[in-house]
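TICKET: design request
STATUS: open
ATTACHED STRUCTURE:
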């Protein structure tokens, strides 16, 4: 039986001493073996990498280049690899496997399409933010890989654990005086040079090792159809997930499974118009507009008038009661995740069962911010929702309430005159227990199996 770790060590030493055409070509074999082992130990990542086209790129040999580049070719993502850099960056076979998982997670989080424009203007910040998000889910990376441990001492803002890359990017952008090295590793700010010591593995003496170069994400001549590119990325992850058995799925981190649920769960389309109409009718004062004369000085055309403005105040209540299975809860939350793509607004999410769970309210503006965890598990009491709306002074003129549930609760509630409600019932056969229904009722067609 072939010992892949020993074979890799021999290949790596040959590449470092006297690389030849044969040893360079053998780099593809080393990657194949790493993916095969991932199929046995981390099946999902192996399945995804098996479906990702690979391409030898012998030009990635300068000191500042990386082992891998995810690049677009005709709206399809391709993994380019440089054997000489792989041998230099990964001293062990396990490091190569970890590096490949790192690349796979960029695809799961859709970084190549999410940051295709921003990476042109802020390549160092995008590199650091996306690597921080990804590396926390990869065990066995080289010690000099980007991590919270090495970055946090050099940044004023507190970097939360296992946050989305968008969160890290915002925090890094706020660090106005921070500087980034050419390879994306942070250095101390000039203001704090004397007070801060670079963390081990960072600083000028030893650069942090980057696994891949995101410059390929911005190839505008190869990424001409972002919708097609996004669909292909989602399909790649979906196919890999569907091919992964239950034991393999159990090895995938919860936040990664949640992202896959969002990607593989299609949005229901029949209730979008209700949301558009409901939110569009919520007034929020006035705003200036040249489309209307100024009432006080109608003769002065340069002075704008006032028109009504609208505010997107969406309160989303998600049923976490015992009648909702874990799988159905994930699918209901996936529906909430789709809302962040539909509306340029912050959405307030509140889990409930017999009560609106205290301390569990949170706001989202990105799909990755949805918390795919159960909060509660008791009986269902819809009265708690209307009481919560009253407590927070929500009215029909300011708020739209979206309730995702199976409809199994009490028959009568005191709505406190709040009627701007849309009920999303999980299954086609579900019926709302409240009679008469308050607001609009829409049945989704989610499967609970």
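STATUS: resolved
RESOLUTION: sequence designed for all positions
ATTACHED SEQUENCE:
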């Amino acid at each position: 039986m072939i010992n892949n770790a020993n074979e890799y060590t021999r290949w790596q030493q040959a590449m470092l001493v006297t690389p030849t055409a044969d040893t360079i070509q053998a780099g593809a074999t080393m990657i194949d073996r790493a993916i095969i082992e991932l199929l046995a130990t981390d099946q999902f990542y192996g399945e995804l990498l098996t479906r990702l086209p690979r391409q030898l790129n012998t030009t990635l040999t300068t000191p500042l280049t990386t082992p891998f580049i995810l690049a677009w070719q005709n709206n399809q993502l391709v993994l380019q690899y440089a054997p000489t850099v792989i041998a230099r960056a990964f001293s062990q076979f396990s490091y190569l496997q970890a590096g490949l998982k790192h690349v796979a997670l960029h695809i799961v989080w859709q970084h190549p399409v999410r940051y295709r424009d921003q990476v042109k203007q802020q390549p160092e910040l995008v590199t650091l933010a996306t690597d921080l998000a990804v590396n926390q889910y990869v065990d066995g990376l080289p010690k000099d890989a980007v991590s919270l441990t090495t970055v946090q001492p050099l940044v004023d803002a507190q970097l939360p654990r296992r946050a989305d890359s968008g969160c890290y990017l915002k925090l890094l952008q706020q660090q106005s005086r921070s500087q980034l090295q050419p390879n994306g590793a942070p250095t101390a700010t000039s203001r704090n040079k004397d007070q801060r010591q670079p963390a081990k593995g960072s600083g000028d003496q030893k650069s942090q090792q980057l696994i891949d170069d995101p410059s390929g994400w911005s190839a505008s001549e190869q990424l001409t159809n972002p919708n097609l590119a996004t669909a292909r990325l989602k399909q790649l992850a979906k196919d890999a997930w569907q091919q992964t058995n239950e034991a393999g799925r159990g090895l995938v981190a919860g936040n990664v499974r949640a992202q896959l649920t969002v990607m593989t769960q299609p949005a229901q389309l029949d209730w979008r118009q209700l949301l558009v109409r409901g939110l569009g009718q919520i007034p929020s004062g006035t705003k200036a507009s040249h489309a209307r004369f100024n009432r006080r000085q109608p003769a002065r055309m340069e002075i704008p008038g006032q028109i009504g403005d609208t505010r997107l105040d969406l309160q989303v209540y998600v049923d976490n009661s015992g009648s909702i299975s874990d799988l159905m809860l994930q699918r209901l939350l996936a529906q909430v995740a789709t809302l962040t793509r539909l509306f340029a607004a912050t959405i307030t999410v509140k889990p409930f069962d017999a009560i609106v769970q205290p301390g569990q309210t949170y706001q989202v503006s990105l799909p990755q911010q949805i918390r795919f965890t159960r909060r509660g598990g008791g009986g269902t009491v819809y009265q708690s929702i209307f009481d919560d709306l009253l407590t927070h002074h929500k009215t029909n003129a300011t708020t739209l309430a979206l309730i995702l549930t199976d409809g199994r609760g009490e028959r009568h509630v005191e709505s406190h005159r709040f009627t701007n409600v849309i009920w999303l019932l999980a299954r086609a056969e579900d019926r709302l227990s409240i009679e008469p229904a308050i607001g609009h009722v829409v049945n989704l067609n989610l499967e609970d199996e």
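CLOSING REMARK: Confidence is low (pLDDT under 50) at residues 180-185, 187-206. The radius of gyration is 26 Å.
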